[in-house]
Amino acid sequence: MRPLRNQTHFYKNIYFPLLVIYLLFTVSLGFIGFEFLNEQYMQKLKLLSNITGAVLSENPSMEDTLIDAIQDTEWHYLTDGFATLSQYGYRESLSMYEDALYRDSLKSFLFLVLLFFILSFLIITICFILFDKKRKWQEQKLLTLLDHCLSDDYSFLEQRKNIDIIFNEAFTDTLLKLGNKLMLKSQLLAEERDNTKSLVTDISHQLKTPVSALKNCLSLSMEADSPQERDALLERCALQLTKLESLLEALINISRLETSMITLHQEKTALADILLDAVNTVYVKALQKNISVEVLTDSEDQDESSADSLTLSLDRKWTVEALANILDNAIKYSPSGSTITVRLSKLFSYVRIEIEDAGIGIPKNEYNKVFQRFYRGQHPTVQQSEGSGVGLYLSRKIIEEEGGSITVKPAVKQGSIFVVQFPLPYVN
Amino acid sequence: MKMIFHLALSKLHYHKSRTLLTGIAIMLTTMLLTAIGTSAIAMLDMNRQLAVAQTNYHAAFGLTEPEQLSILSKHINVESLATMENFAQIINGKMNGYLRYYDTVKDGIYFSNLELTEGHFPEKENEICSVPSFFERVGADPIVGGKVTLSFRAGGKGEVQTKEFTISGLLTDVEISADISDSRIAWGAYVSKALLTQYEEAGLYESLPSAYLRVYGEDTLSYDEIEAKIISTATDVGLDEEHVSCNNQYLYTMTAPDTDAISIVVVISLVVILFSALVIYSIYYVGVITDIQEIGKLKALGASRRQIARLFFCQGGIVCAFAIPLGLLIGYFLPWFLFPQVIRILNASALDSTRMDHLKSLRNQLHMFSLPFLLAVIASVLITVWVSLLKPIRMAKKVSPVEAIRYQENTTDCKSRRGHLTVKVSTLTWANLARNKRRTLVTMLTMGLSSVLFICVAAVMNSCRVEDLARRNIQEGEFRISLNYAHNDKEYPENNLDALVQQNYFSEEFLAQLSSIEGVESVTRAPGNILASTDEESAFFEDVQDRLPISYFTREDIPELNEQLVSGEIDYDRMTANNEILCTHKYSFDAYGLALGDVFPLILHDGDREIPLTVTLTAVSQPESYTTLIIMTKDSWDNLGLTYDATTDIYVHVKEANYDDVKKTLQDIVAENEHFELYSLDEEMAIGRSGLSLIKYPIYLILVLIAVIGFMNLINTMITSIITRKKELGILQALGLSNQQLVRMLSAEGMVFTTGTLLISTTLGHLFGYLFFLYAKKMHFMSLTGYHFPIWETVILALVLLGGQSAITLFIRKKVEKESLIERIRGQE
Amino acid sequence: MSENANIILRTDSLCKYYGAGDNLVKAVDCIDLTIKQGEFVSIVGKSGSGKSTLLHMLGALDNPTSGTVWLDGENISSFKENRLSQIRRRKIGFIFQSYNLIPSLNVWENIVLPLGLDNKELDEPFIRDIVRTLGLENKVKNLPNTLSGGQQQRCAIARAIAAKPSIILADEPTGNLDTKTGDEVMALLKTSAKKYGQTLVVITHNEEIAQMADRTVMIADGKVVG
Quick check: ipTM above 0.95? Predict the structure, then answer.
């Protein structure tokens, strides 16, 4: 970028020379015009003298008549003169251009006019271009300024001189006022933002201490050697037994399913019923962990065939089982008090059921594996909690058998989303 | 603005082929316009130079008073002045010669036949100068200082004087065609002022010269203005208009450039401009369609409508900046190199030697450069480009950022397509063409139109048969011996037809003599001519020295006459009964203000007999081959009971094998009689051929260039249609389209263009060609007779189209295949 | 041998190198792969891992630098271009990320295009069934650009299935689609492939998509890593 000062001076300085050139030219044109007229007058004088000389050398007595004719303003002899001269083509209607004597003068005069026209045109054009350039230059500078404002750079406020050169004073004043105001506002905003940040940090620090204290207390109580403690252990054994039973049941189901010993009886079933059954199955567990299960339907789709009022071709019992497994899984790894959201949406050829929990989530590299037989996640929570690694596998088997699909993906905040898709009746 | 310029540059670079094609189209347009215009300027200048080469005076005044000369010399209008007077008539047998005196009063008049090769103009009373052939003719040695004795009558009257002259100088010799009879050449020899003064003083001669003058303003005034100026000058010095004879031919050439030539140039230029505008339009149109996504992206980035428009103008401007100068250069230098050559070759036979002398150094002298014209070419090309850009720009402006980004090159608004149950390669072809209906149509139309033009002109050109041209002079047989007669030569009445018939040159014996030549099959007489005069005032007769030849027609001619009938009615019997006549030339009919029903009391000159006959004009027709303006029926003719045989032309039919021998014999026979003139078929054909090629080849050249411009469009359409579908073609190949199928598909697309073009050109072309032919025939252009279907031209057109189209397809396919299938499928564009 | 009979596609130390010397890029570096009839295999890798190059070679779109591709027991690396065109339209169905439908043909024509190119008799009920399965019944006369992305990809699936190829190769089939539509399309693809008994190879960088497959092959730097 050129220094501002020079550029402005350039613009200011160019107009003056242009004006001077133009004036000089106009004046010189006036002089030339004067010379032109003068020359014609001289020509006339010469012509008169020549005629006088010629006539008088032949006929000296003509002197009076001749002088009379020269000074006569009433043109008494005009008709007679033309009568003779017309033989030679001189007549009143003769145009200057037809006379070889005057033609050249006329040409140079026309040339001059043309020159003047071209020069005026050039100067005006140059002025226009310069004016336009200056305007654009100002615009550009203004835009740069505004850009600075937008990116919260207000350093220009301290260099009033630079701006003064570009715009006039009133404009500069208003511009600087605007800049100042904007700067103040943005400073205020930045302060507020910083306040909010520290607030969040403080609160989370406050929460952490009591949670870890609770955890420590729980592990200490388990190491005590009192009889009460043993009771508690027994109770836990009983629990393990029940678990084992349910695991066995799941295993049987899987083996049956895989060896096609059971067949799915797909018949028209309301999706709402299946969902209700599935949620009911896990209801107690959820209640125990104080987890609420929320079922949402796509709000966009309010017509009769909205997702929850759909009738699909499914085996009611097994589909309930499949969905319950997923829900069970979700409840298992979700912290108590959280919410499990079941979202229903109707797609073009499928019904999409998303089951979102706020649990521990599944790492990416295990996505494919969670649906495998007996696979249990590497996460400590999963390792500690009871489970056989069968539920999801079973769910997948059932769902795929019914022409659907199941995948898992991470939830936005925490936990995972299981996506189940069932084909709509006209697919398959 | 800078950004736009850079963007335009990079776009031009990116679409290299399109830029090249537009560039070539613009370049060709500029070149064509420049070349045509420059040739026209050169032609005008050549005419001008040839006119100047003869003489440059504006008008000759036949002075009535000697004083008028001095007034003229001082008159304000007079630029230059010279005098010429016939001092005496040379008496030397049949020789037609004069002693003249020429004097320059005011410098500037030029006569080409007054250029000295050596010596000087006569100064002493006994000096003389002339062309060498004059001295040879009067039997003297043409050397400066030589002596020559001449008999003459001063002022054309009084006694014959004989005087010995000394040759003071020799003038540039004029080559005289051998077939002009001696008595028709006016010889001139120039003598001195001293001789004139001597005779004047002796009272034997009264000097009253003719004044040859130039007035001011030749380069600024129009013909009418300059004529008015001449007349007013004449009036000033007291001369009537009838004493003034303007050098019309010279004045026309100098002041009013050939309006026919100019209008032809303008029409051709307009056609060229129209075609190139169409082509440039369609190239940019196709460009916008294929670029819509890019334009959309620009818009999405915030380009305003004006910036988009500017981007296009900028692109056009940059291309113009390169193409126009190049076109100007080529367009200017092409005629610069070729024009003199072409003129020399084509006119070699038609021009006499003096003209040839001028043509030899033509290139150095020809003034072809005209800045205003070149500026006009630049302006018209720029305007053409601008206009052709308007519509595409308007389209580009309308592009909305959103639609553009998802735009999938689809010009039809339809959402669905009826389609077919099964898909074949041809389905693909049709579907693609249907998708780009407008593009397909525009391309086909431009190509079609230029082909239509081609066929149209080819039809007329093809119908211009050399033989037809030759048959204008030799209606039948291979040779025509014509009686070279005058109508009303008062000085040499023996040359008049009525005198000649008395000689009975075409006697039965003469015909028999001809028939006896080996190889001659037959000798036939053409309808005879008889001279008719009238006592009534009639401009019609005045212009043919008061005597008009009349011929006759037979019943067999009636169909042809009826076919070309302009007005009136032809009824042979009625016409015979009422002595009715028919005018064979519509233009004379109009020009002389004749009307049907006009009655002419005629006197027919049958040798030394005069037959009075009153005839009525009852029909006007425009048949192809009639030698006289007026014809009567054969029966009326027979009723005249002519004493002398009125045959003026005989036709000789020969066997092809003996043609050359017969020609030689006939030439010898004809040479014996100065009134005979021999026309032979081969010479007439040669003349016709050169005349035809003079028109044919330049027009074909222009047509070919127009076709090339149109071809640019086809190339562009095909390139864009293939390049933009690069990906699509890749997919098709990925789906299993084999190479042969690809070739078949692309060729089929090209074939649609070609067949479409051919269809348009053959149907419309031949239709318009025929109409054009009829029009040309009506205008008697190149004596067209029958419509000849331009089969060869059509076949050549088809072959060129097919060949060109397959070449393009092949070329582009090769180019596309350089990229691997994967690159194409993945490629963004 | 019964193992072998089941194999539809096999590669033997398949390599594809670009450039030379210091600029040598090993896009595919000695890959041995076996895909069984009816299997759904996903090939997962980051962009630039060579998975697309591998797919192109599997689909006879690209020539390997070395190594062989066996399709249905034939070594397609040795075939000439014409034979490859035949192979492509008869044995392979392609599905691309950007759908790549022919814009000038309507949906139906697009679907039957590979058949048309092969001059095959049209099995109309079969195509109708596919169209119904993929929910395109009301759209057969539409031009592709009037369809949504999901519909276009479904049309592409139909096109891939229509010629009853031995194997369907899909290159990031859900790359241009939103999650829901992508899941749906994947489900459809899988269902259809299963229904018509076709082998399905899907390459993707999205492991959520890959989990639908029976088997996942991980590729990094041109090599199989898991």
Answer: no
